[in-house]
Structures are given as C-alpha cells and as structure tokens.
Amino acid sequence: MKAFLPVLLVLSTVSTSVWGQETAEKDKLRALIIDGQNNHSAWPQTTMMTRSYLEQSGRFTVDIQRTQYTWKGGQLLQQFPLEDGKTYQDLEQPKPDPDFKPNFADYDVVISNFGWKAAPWPESTQQALERYVRGGGGLVVIHAANNSFGSWDAFNRMIGLGGWDGRDESSGPYVYLDESGKVVRDKSTGKGGAHGPAHEYRLVVRTPDHPIVRGLPSAWMHTKDELYQQLRGPAENMTILATAYADPKYRGSDRHEPMLMTIDYGQGRIFHTTMGHDAVSFSGVGFITTLVRGTEWAATGEVTLTQVPQDFPTPTQSSAREFSVPEVR
Ligand SMILES: [Zn+2]
C-alpha cells in the first residue's frame, strides 16, 4: 500500500470534496474503523462505505483494523478487500482474536462496525478503548455495534443504550420520548432491543442547536432500514439528537425512539447512530451526513462540515446515493 501513497495524495488534492472543502493532508483527522465480526453480513461493504464517506469529506484519513478471525464476511470480503497484506480466516462462528490490539491512541476517533455476537476482545484491548475514550478520544457506534459486548460494563456506559446479548432491566432503563417530547426513562422489566421489518421512516431532530444536526431540516425521511426500539442501558450523560416514531404498523413500540445520540464519557465523546442495517440504509443521504458530522464531532467536539448536501432528503422524500468503491486507493 505504501508505494501507492504519492499517487493517492495527488488524487486527493485534485478531487473536489462533495462537502466543498478540503483539509490539508497534515491537518486531517485520523479515523480508525474496527470490524471483523458482525451478524450483519453487509459489514465488509458498510466498512468501505464508511471509509469512503469520511475520505470524501476531505476531513479524514481512515485506517481499518480487523480481527484476524472474521465472521459472516462471506463473498463481500473478496468484493471489498482490505488489501493490507494480512491474513484473515472467515469462520462459521465468532472466535476471540488474542492479537486484536489496535493502538487507539494513534487516532482522533474510532468507529465500531462490530455487531451482535462479536467475540470478546482481549481484556487489555477493552481496557485500552475505555482508557482512550475516558482520556478524550472519540468513538462512533453504528447500528449493531450496540448489540456487542452486553456484559462489558464500561462499553455499555460508553454506548449509552444497547440491545440484545443479554441486555434487560439490569442493563438500565428503556429510554424514549413521549408525545410531548419529554425523555422517559422506563425501568420496567424486559429485554433490550427489538425491531420490526425494515421500512422508510422519518427522523425528527430534537436538539437543533447541537453541532451534528445544526442547520439540517428539522425532519427527514431515512432510506429503508430497521428501526431499533426498546434499547436499554445506563444512558448517562446522553443527549438524544433525533428520534423516529416506531409505528405499530411495522411492529413498532408506539414510541419516539432515539436514533442519533451523543454520550459524554470522561473527557471523551461518543456519537451513536442506531441506523445502518445494510448497504441500502448506508446509502441514505441523511445517514451519510449525520455519520460524517457525528464522526467529526466525536473526534473534536466541533463540526466544520456544516454544508447541507443538495441531495439531502425532505420530510417526505428519502434520498440515496449510489456507492462504488473508488478505483484507485
Ligand atoms: Zn440490523
């Protein structure tokens, strides 16, 4: 890869960022995507989509680190290869990787594309992530990344809310908004995490002054996706940026469920989007915009990528972008 770097630099300086700006190479934020084990088999592609969106913003350089034992990668691992010279084994079941030890401290922000049933990381890696975030690092949690590691206490505090993997009333309350927009912390018993069939649904901004959503329309249609509901967790120092109404027509909870959240953890910042089930969901312009802005906010506490894309969805009409892997990297 290193041999191609000069070519990449040239290309990146002549490319026009869709965000209308380009940060000098040396000032770019350093992002690390971590993945390898996720029940959502689209993950090799959605990792590449995430990398591509962040790089196209002109604001980030992106590395990817993957567990050597992968799960559910399948054919997409060939279609969207890492080409990092390392050897990976795609297994029938998730398996702990004792060598998965990213140096989180090298990055401004870490993005988890792990999912349900991801095997536990080495304890030293768990501690390193907690130390990194507590010390001021950024973390981004996408969709099923909030299914991982149900019994890891610090992780649950970092993500605020999660689902499945044994989560129940002992994990913390259900958190949602009522009709008046008031946050409800519901301690009733029951499992954490559910969703009905995927469908298009409307995001409603609840904190219009937050940098991640500032200047965006107050509501927009999201492309077809699962609508996560009845998540539960400690939900400490958590701000709900946007919700979606979980319509009983789609086996919904009849509640306004948190879709975009931020969590403060020590000196660190977490951006959590519950959306992003598959490549279609990842193609939504509202998803892309908030993912990129949220990643910048997690990295720095600010958002400079304030331009609202021309193809941003309206309250009644979703909007998606075609995705293809850039030919030269
Ligand atoms: Zn899903």
From TrEMBL:
Location of region: Disordered: 308-329
InterPro entries: Class_I_gatase-like, ThuA-like
Keyword line: Signal
The UniProt record lists the keyword Signal: yes
Bias (Polar residues) ranges: 308-321
Keyword check for Transcription: no
Domain ThuA-like intervals: 100-298
Signal peptide: 1-20
PANTHER family: GALACTOSE-BINDING DOMAIN-LIKE SUPERFAMILY PROTEIN, SECRETED GLYCOSYL HYDROLASE
UniProt-recorded name of the protein: ThuA domain-containing protein
Lineage per the UniProt record: Bacteria, Pseudomonadati, Planctomycetota, Planctomycetia, Pirellulales
